[in-house]
């Protein structure tokens, strides 16, 4: 029995040594020891350096994900223009409550055409609590809403909350410190637009 254990241990040691000796790092380490490296630097091969480096995506190239609820907001050309401004600088998702498939289809088509965002970026729920859950899962950088229940639910779950209703902000967070109040969707869009920060 002890002979079998010894054989298994020797096989494990052999496999480990074979793997170590086949490693590209061992060759580089041996070369560095034999021929020296300038100023004590040691090169280590990694999968990306041995197969060609691939550039990493920088966070600077990413656009903010912003969600806007149009419930409680009168739809006008000014609102559509503000949403177009947002979609030009952010990844915009528009959310609304719809009670039927027809209402959902007409709303999706209207928003998609007038704002110029893809239809899959127009989301619907049947209740405001459903909207709150969808926004939590979406996890946008900013969410604009007029419903105090949704805003209250999202405090601490979404990094930045905004509203165009000071009363909703006060009701949702007490003193309104957690929610930024804007005078209109256009002023919200201006605050996120990079052209206004220059």
Detailed description of the structure:
- This protein is an alpha/beta fold.
- The chain has a domain at 65-192: HAD superfamily/HAD-like (Rossmann fold, 3-Layer(aba) Sandwich).
- The chain has helices at residues 2-21, 24-35, 47-50, 77-89, 101-115, 128-138, 148-154, 166-173, 185-192, and strands spanning 65-69, 91-97, 122-125, 142-144, 160-163, 179-181.
- A six-stranded parallel beta sheet has the order 3-2-1-4-5-6, with helices on both faces.
- α4 links the parallel β1 (65-69) and β2.
- The chain is elongated.
- Residues 37-59 have low confidence and may be disordered.
SSE arrangement:
Layout: H1 2-21, H2 24-35, H3 47-50, E1 65-69, H4 77-89, E2 91-97, H5 101-115, E3 122-125, H6 128-138, E4 142-144, H7 148-154, E5 160-163, H8 166-173, E6 179-181, H9 185-192
Parallel strand pairs: 1-2, 1-4, 2-3, 4-5, 5-6
Helix pairs in contact: 4-9, 6-7, 7-8
Supply database-style keywords.
198 residues, alpha/beta, Rossmann fold, 6-stranded parallel sheet, 6 strands, 49% helix, elongated, PEX22
Morphology call: elongated
Number of β-strand runs: 6
| Element order: H for helix, E for strand | HHHEHEHEHEHEHEH
Q: Which percent range fits the helix content?
A: 40-55%
The strand order across the widest sheet is 3-2-1-4-5-6
The H-level CATH homologous superfamily of the domain at 65-192, spelled out, is HAD superfamily/HAD-like
* Oligomer type: single chain
CATH level 1 name of the domain at 65-192: Alpha Beta
Distance between the termini: 78 Å
Poorly predicted regions = 37-59
Gross CATH architecture of the domain at 65-192? 3-Layer(aba) Sandwich
Instruction: Look up the CATH topology of the domain at 65-192.
Output: Rossmann fold
What percentage of the residues does DSSP assign to strands (E)?
Answer: 5-15%
Mean pLDDT level: 78
Computed over alpha carbons, the radius of gyration is 28 Å
Tell me the major beta sheet.
Answer: 6 strands, parallel
Structural class: alpha/beta
Total helical segments: 9
GO biological process, one term: peroxisome organization
InterPro entries: PEX22 (IPR037485)
Pfam family, one: HAD_Pex22
């Amino acid at each position: 029995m002890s002979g079998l254990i010894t054989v298994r241990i020797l096989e494990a040691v052999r496999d480990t040594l074979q793997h170590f000796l086949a490693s590209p790092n061992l060759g580089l380490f041996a070369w560095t020891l034999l021929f020296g490296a300038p100023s004590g630097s040691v090169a280590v091969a990694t999968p990306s350096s041995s197969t060609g480096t691939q550039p990493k995506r920088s966070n600077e190239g990413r656009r903010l994900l912003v969600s806007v609820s149009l419930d409680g907001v009168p739809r006008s050309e000014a609102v559509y223009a503000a949403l177009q401004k947002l979609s030009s600088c952010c990844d915009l998702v528009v959310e609304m409550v719809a009670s039927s498939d027809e209402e959902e289809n007409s709303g999706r088509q209207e928003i998609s055409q007038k704002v110029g965002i893809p239809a899959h970026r127009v989301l619907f729920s049947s209740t405001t609590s459903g909207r709150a859950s969808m926004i939590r899962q979406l996890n946008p950088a900013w969410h604009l809403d007029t419903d105090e229940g949704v805003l209250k639910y999202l405090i601490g779950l979404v990094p930045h909350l905004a509203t165009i209703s000071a009363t909703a902000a006060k009701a949702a967070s007490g003193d309104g410190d957690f929610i930024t109040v804007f005078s209109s969707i256009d002023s919200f869009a201006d605050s996120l637009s990079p052209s206004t920060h220059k």
